[in-house]
Amino acid sequence: MGAWRLFKNTGDHISTALGLSIDDTLPLSLSAHGSPPILHLYIFKPSAIVGKYQDIEAALRLDRCRDRGVEYNRRSTGGGTVIMGPKVVALGLGIDIDQPGMRGGIRGIFETLSTVLMQALEDLGVEAAFVPKNDLVVEGKKIAGLSAALEAEKAILFHASLLVDFDIPLMLDIMNQPPLKMSDKGYNCFSQRMTTITEQLGHDIEMETVFRAIEVSFCNTFGSSLEIDEPDTWEDRHMREFTQRRYNNPEWIFSHKHPRSHMGSGMLKTPGGLLEIYLSLAGNTIERIMITGDFFSTTRDINLLESSLKWTSSTQQKIEEHLSEVWSDDMIYGLDVPTLTEAILRAKENALNPLQKAV
Amino acid sequence: MADIKGYDMPDELYYHEEHSWARIEENRVVVGMNDMFQKEAGDIVFVDLPDEGDDVEQGEVCGKIQSRKWIGKLCAPVSGEIIELNEELEDDTGLINQDPYGKGWILIIEPSDLEGELGNLMHGQDALAPFVDQEIQRTEEERAKA
After folding, report:
1. What domains lie within chain B, and their CATH numbers?
2. For a Cys staple, A266 with which of A212, A275, A312, A347, CB 3.0–4.6 Å?
């Protein structure tokens, strides 16, 4: 098997414009320049990056980003907002969908590339699992986010962010959130839904150690080797074009090609306790959801339920269908799928009609 | 209607290998994404469409479709001018999932070389069955290796 190319920027923390321009060049280089697969491992300056079809002004508090010196930009792959920084691994991969070792179909691609990251985490001593809808979790808590886009010909761009450590207060300050009831609830909500390699290991870990584990895992999974390289003249020219046309261009960053965003919450008294639902909608799709309240359940089960609903349709039928796929008895003590669905639909109603709030 | 390995692939349509379909209605071609795509992709989040009046070539990427965290391509099954877009998709992209060959149509093309290009598309069970088989087989082979 031939060698893959490895672009590695681990010393300097790079701008969103540079990092994302390099990533966009990767699939193009495969399809139009004859390059083998290229893995790009790097670290961003503190930044907030929205998905290609997200409403950046609804997702982020841009004034707070500017005040805190946090860059913001829009990537070319799907999914939601990621907060990047000195302890978050940024991964870009240009690879052909027919690459030997890659499973077929969209699910297969995410499964294959998740397995690479899971293996790397295992080598570092962290047992992660892939949950459908493209997240890697540890004990039900998200540790990495994945997204992808099919670009030129059969070449895809795959993005991943892996949390080595994470600044939750910063995230809460720069991202718009559904209206949480208590000021400290936001922190607790997110700390129960996210974890990091540092938290799992109980000690700090060098970024280079994490990068190295990822490199080894790619080699093992695809039976290839990685050779350190840099963009050549052709690639450099295309990178500069992407920087100019996209990542330094306000028309790209503030693009209006996205579904309408709505945020809202809803409460429902049930025999199992009070249910509180916080919801972000992208058009008719659930972008983010938090299920909280004073019921009895586990973090793992709540995160599984939430994950089953992310990036799915918010119709009653689809909510019930997706919840039923993961539901087991007493996941939330005293509650059933129809009741949970009713609470979610109440939050949806409040998100779509904030002035006619039905509690 | 034709069921091929659990996927609804109507006989009367023409199919591009990137999963778009074409239905000929007199001098225009209605375009959408097939059942195999929508089942594999899951709930569609957003459809990024070209403008009416744009010219497209057969096989050219003329739109992008986001499902979950994946952005896929809409390839034009025939060349011509885009003369209509399905505006209902602006409010409900779920139509592509619920009714991919009906209310989930995406755009209409006024073809420029229909006769010359139809032969490049798959049509009928004899052409489609091996294509569907191949797509399924590749997935199963890679799963088995893992």
Report:
1. 3-145 (2.40.50.100)
2. A347
User: Is residue A258 less than 8 Å (CB to CB) from chain B?
Assistant: yes
Q: Measured between CB atoms, which of A53, A146, A312 is closest to B46?
A: A53
Distance between B101 CA and the closest CA of chain A, angstroms: 19
Q: What's the confidence (pLDDT) of residue A10?
A: 82
How close does chain A come to B68, measured CA to CA in Å? 5
Contact A53 B42 (CB under 8 A): no
Q: What does the pLDDT average to over A320-347?
A: 94
Q: Which of B19, B20, B43 is the best mutation test for A, with the most CBs of A within 10 A?
A: B43
Host H or E run for residue A237: helix A233-242
ipTM of the predicted structure?
Answer: 0.86
Query: Across the interface, which of A79, A103, A283 has its CB nearest the CB of B143?
Result: A103
- Rounded Cα distance, B138 and A104, in Å: 6
Q: What is the per-residue pLDDT across B19-33, written as a single tens digit (0 to 9) for each?
A: 999 999 999 999 999
> What is the spatial distance between Cα A138 and Cα A127, in angstroms, rounded to a whole number?
6
Does A315 reach chain B within 8 Å, measured CB to CB?
yes
Q: In this prediction, what percent of chain B has a pLDDT beyond 70?
A: 93
| pLDDT level of residue A135 (50, 70, 90 thresholds) | confident
Measured between CA atoms, the residue of chain A closest to residue B145 is A101
Residue A121 confidence (pLDDT): 98
Residues of A in contact with B70 (CB under 8 A): 78, 106, 109-110, 134, 147-150
**What gap in Å lies between CA A334 and CA A124, rounded to an integer?**
39
pLDDT lower than 70: segments of chain B = 1, 138-139, 141-146
Q: What is the reported pLDDT for A183?
A: 47
The two structure tokens encoding residue A296: 């009895």
Residue A189 has pLDDT above 80, yes or no: no
CA trace torsion B66, B68, A54, B105 (10° rounding): 30
The domain ranges of chain A are: 3-253, 261-356
Euclidean distance between CA atoms B8 and B132, whole angstroms? 11
d(CA B114, CA B118): 6
Residue of A nearest to B49 (CA): A257
Average pLDDT across chain A, whole number: 92
- H helix count then E strand count, chain B: 4, 12
C-beta atoms of B70 and A104 within 8 A:
no
pTM comes to 0.91
Q: Tens digit of pLDDT for each residue in A72-87?
A: 999 999 999 999 999 9
Q: Which of B45, B62, B88, B91 to mutate: most A Cβ within 10 Å?
A: B45
Nearest alpha-carbon partner for A255 in A9, A59, A6: A59
CATH class of A3-253: alpha beta
Q: Please check whether the domain covering A261-356 is classified as CATH 3.30.390.50.
A: yes
